[in-house]
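Here is one such tokenized protein:
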Amino acid sequence: VYGQPVETIYEYTPNDKNLIGNNCSSVKTVWFLLWVSPFVCALVTGMLAAFCAINGTMVDMNDTSRAEKALKQFFMMVGVIVMVMWVAASIASASMRLTGTIYSFCGAGLAALFAWGYLEIGTKLINSQMKHSKFMGQLMSIFQNDWFRACVVCGFNVTIPTFFAVEVLRAKVRRLRNTTTSKSWTTPEAQTAWSFLKQWQWASIFMKVNLLCMLYWGMSIGVAKITVVFLAWLNEALASWSYLAVNITLFLIAEFLMMLPPTPGIPVYIIMGIILAGQGRNVEGVGYGGGLTIGIVSAFLVKEVSVVGQYSIGFFMGKSVKIQQLVGVDKVAIRAVEKIMMRKQVIGKVAVLVGGPDWPTNCLCGVLRLSLWTCCWGTIPVITIIGACVMAGAFLAGPKEIMTDSEKSMWSAIANTALVLSGVVQLVAGVIAMYYIQSVVSTEGEELARTRPEHEPVFELTRAEEAFRVTYAEVLRWDSLPKPWLFLLAVSASMMVGSIFLFQFMDALCFVNFQVNDKVSDPDGLNCGSNLGCAIFRLVRGDTPIGWGALGIFFFACTLHFIFSSYVGRVAKKRLAAKLAKTPEVEDLVKDVA
């Protein structure tokens, strides 16, 4: 190394050793990429073959039924990619770098899929299906929904203004080269896109964009990272305890965390593997393998007990008509889930219980008054996911307390493999659940859409709130809001999307690379001893302003959002009161509130 024998490496400074370690890591990364490249090529080739099969054998302009089937499969593939992104979000607290990589691949996959759908299926086929297909009519109603459009804005974020900026430059270049006589500020393609976007209800969309960004931050940034730091701190705090006390304490803490809606389950399972397998290797009669087995059993019991607890919350809170309305017991998709859970068919039940998010799925079963026993035994196959996560934690801890760097790298790679396998199992279960739900909706949609006597209170509540909802939508119209408030909302949404972009694509510059198996007391890491608050604070990088800057932008945007939301709520209430009182001076009331 550096022209000197390897035996003298102890003479190098810490910086030299870090440089040697980084270079070795880079070499290992190149080796791994070379090894995995054929597998990636095979996956890409398989996806292209699937596209070609759908386009070549299923899409027929003269056969609307086969064309509709192709469109259904196309949107099923979109759903699969969305499921992959959800699985990636669930492992964010365990490995944020892996999550970012998966997000990037999913973004590229969605762009390629929509481009393929536009070029190969074409607008002609879509338009013809809209006229003759009920399915396409329902699909277009989803596309025209403000929530869907808000998701589009969040997904494409900075690429939207970038697209128009590039088109402005293209138009200017065309004028300089005298290849066009148009005096327009942009190209015809951009004008078409601008005309289409102008028809959107941007005030309502911006409100929903802010809510989606806050939800993403809370799940993938706030709760996920704090959970990782807390579990890593807990690992150190329990190091001096007896093995039995560690088991009992860890079970109770894990159960408490699982009962909190935002807490992801995967880091909880991983830390159980790290602690129980890591400490078990030093306990006579237990050992590394015994600790791993105890970790899997304990994590599975935590999962089953949490199913009962979450089901009970849904069961008792489900007596409220408002909760039933929020859950959507009168909606076709929710009734399709209920239909699947009440059938004797096992695969559909297991797929829904294993592939769906823990809290919403179990609480929904409670609200729908489904069988608790069915929910418990249907969740048993989740042990494959739990086992993989616990093994990932045990692999991170390693079979030996002291390991060389090469051994740590090897076990870390094996742990990531186990983590990916758990994600694949959850993805497969989610896709199967989505297939069964879509199948029930397609075959029994009309029956599921009928009004039920037991849901009459929900219908009455929805009808009673319809007047306020319509008035609220009127207040949110872009052309009726005062310009200062429009500016405030636009600034809020822009800052919100911009901060999320920084968190997502510049995570390494915003936060310290801290994993659940790291130590908060590590001098080369957070260096916080046993201080949990210090560890959370130092998770944001202090050597660059991007992390604290992005947090400042995000929270300032949240403040602007709540100010605007409060204003719109006051105006809507006054306008509705004026309507009910048949007061003609509605506009004067709005101006007074403003």
